[in-house]
């Protein structure tokens, strides 16, 4: 069972490298409609996420913002900062199910995530050795880096309640994967509990505790997130309804409004 590929087939990530080399001064990332990933290759760096306390980094580190989140970076000449940075966008917009399941930001020492080491080393070589085609290669490496980071998060046991925590749970992940792969199926709690090899009561309680929603609420959220992506792509509402498990456009519209407070047409106009 591949817990990640189905998600990425719906909500792939696209990176755009915009800085590689010495960093000195102040960089302000505010009111930008994209996420960011910054890699400190050498030297020191100070970063201030939103209104939270400033973080001082003094060894190679990864700073990851899956969604738009205001932050500032600072360095002076004495800090000898070498930084590589890229913007991130997930298919379906920053409110899609995968991006929404991730923390506002992560700051990790590269030594803490050894499974990223070879990709990071390759990315740094491209950034600082000046090969032809380097920007295109770096963009793809940043995208690979995000996928490997997601793999790392799923294998971790320290998540907050949500999709990622559910995917890290060996039994719940079976049920989540089915909902992800077959949103058009009218899954019952009993069927999902059977897949997870749990009683209905135990499954419902553990799902709510780990994922933070009931199975029915999660399936609704997943379907609406897929519908939002399809609306952005310009698909007709009748085809979207069938794809995500509703018998008619009006049934999808009711579910959509229950989740977002807007009709599909209103949401699309705002998006």
Percentage of residues assigned to helices? 40-55%
Number of domains: 2
Mean pLDDT: 94
CATH architecture of the largest domain: Sandwich
Largest sheet: 5 strands, antiparallel
In percent, how much strand structure appears in the residues?
A: 15-25%
Assigned CATH superfamily of the largest domain: Jelly Rolls
> Could you say which structural class the secondary elements and strand pairing correspond to?
alpha+beta
* Count of discrete alpha- or pi-helical segments spanning 4 or more residues: 12
Task: Report the uncertain regions.
Answer: none
What is the tally of beta strands? 9
| Helix-strand sequence | HEEEEEEEEHEHHHHHHHHHH
According to CATH, what is the topology of the largest domain? Jelly Rolls
Strand order of the largest sheet: 1-8-3-6-9
Distance between the termini: 34 Å
C-alpha Rg, in Å? 20 Å
Shape: globular
**CATH hierarchy class name of the largest domain:** Mainly Beta
Task: Outline the structure in words.
The chain has 271 residues and is α+β, with helices and mostly antiparallel strands. The chain has 2 domains: 5-155, Jelly Rolls, CATH 2.60.120.10; 163-270, Homeodomain-like (Arc Repressor Mutant, subunit A, Orthogonal Bundle). The chain is built from 12 helices and 9 strands. The strands form 2 sheets. Strands 1-8-3-6-9 form a 5-stranded antiparallel β-sheet, with helices on one face. Helix 3 (117-129) runs antiparallel to helix 4 (134-155) and helix 7 (189-195) crosses helix 8 (200-211). The longest helix has 22 residues, at 134-155. The mean pLDDT is 94.
């Amino acid at each position: 069972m591949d817990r990640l590929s189905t998600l990425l087939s719906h909500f792939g990530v696209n990176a755009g490298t915009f800085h590689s080399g010495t960093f000195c001064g102040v960089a302000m990332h505010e009111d930008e409609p994209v996420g960011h990933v910054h890699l400190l290759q050498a030297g020191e760096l100070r970063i201030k996420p939103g209104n939270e306390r400033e973080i001082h980094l003094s060894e190679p580190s990864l700073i990851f913002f899956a969604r738009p989140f205001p932050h500032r970076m600072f360095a002076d000449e004495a800090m000898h900062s070498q930084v590589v940075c890229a913007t991130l966008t997930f298919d379906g917009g920053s409110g899609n199910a995968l991006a929404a399941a991730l923390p506002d930001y992560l700051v990790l020492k590269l030594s803490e995530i050894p499974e990223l080491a070879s990709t990071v080393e390759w990315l740094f070589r491209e950034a600082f050795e000046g090969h032809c085609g380097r920007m295109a290669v770096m963009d793809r490496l940043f995208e690979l880096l995000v996928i490997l980071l997601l793999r790392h998060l799923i294998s971790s046991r320290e998540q907050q309640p949500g999709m990622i925590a559910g995917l890290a749970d060996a039994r719940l992940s079976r049920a989540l994967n089915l909902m992800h792969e077959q949103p058009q199926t009218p899954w019952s709690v009993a069927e999902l509990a059977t897949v997870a090899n749990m009683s209905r009561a135990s499954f419902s309680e553990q799902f709510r505790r780990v994922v933070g929603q009931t199975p029915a609420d999660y399936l609704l959220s997943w379907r609406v997130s897929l519908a939002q992506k399809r609306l952005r792509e310009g698909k007709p509402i009748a085809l979207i309804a069938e794809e995500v498990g509703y018998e008619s456009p009006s049934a999808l519209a009711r579910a959509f409004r229950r989740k977002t407070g807007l009709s599909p047409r209103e949401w699309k106009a705002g998006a």
